[in-house]
């Protein structure tokens, strides 16, 4: 009997999505476009702020999650499941829950991102589709948790 | 008797944060950096996807909220409250709840962002500080809701 990809999803499965070092220039470039607050734009201004040092926009930390997820998510999922078949269709993400920025990400910090599967269940509203719910976490080089949220994506159950 | 800024916050208060048109080039530039999926990168590939047309990364829609909030939030808040005094200190955002991407944002769409104050309460853990909880919503040029989330920020009660 052939098992579907969906039926093989195991809550607790953990995927390492890779890491990214937030260099000062990248922090400032993102901030100039999307979050031009002094502590994301300029070292001296950051020293005078409650952060004390140049640090990345929380949205920059989110965007880097997406970058790593797109680049490494499928490979990590295949490896964790020992899956070599075709990947099931995936739908759009309806959103996320409970995003927490727990600590600043300072210039030079390296964040490692991982995803832990919380649940996989059939969708009530879309036959043939299931919902994968995962906790996403980023930790810095001191193994401190800096960001956490719960992500949901649609995935084919076929 | 002088009222503090914090004590004058009224749930239901609505702030218009401005609008932004998602041009195809900006959608692709964001996607190349942070969300390189075919339907965010290329018109032809997008036509063959479940979206049907080039559309913006959900994280791009979030980042543009931040851009408009930084640019226009303070002015909108002053106007809504009739406040001409000094602005209270604001702390970092501890995070967001319940982000929903309700509809795609297609190339050429213009999103208008607004914030509605849900609650303002004193912080239990940080004396002298309060928490402002707001619903953020973006609607497109057809007045359809495309994104919604609940934001929380620390603000001085003094």
From TrEMBL, chains A, B:
Signal peptide: none annotated. GO terms for molecular function: (3R)-hydroxyacyl-[acyl-carrier-protein] dehydratase activity. It comes from the Bacteria. One of its GO terms (biological process) is fatty acid biosynthetic process. InterPro entries: HotDog_dom_sf, MaoC-like_dom, UPF0336/Enoyl-CoA_hydratase. Residues 17-75 form the MaoC-like domain. It holds the Pfam family MaoC_dehydratas. This is MaoC-like domain-containing protein. The lineage of its organism: Bacteria, Pseudomonadati, Pseudomonadota, Alphaproteobacteria, Hyphomicrobiales.
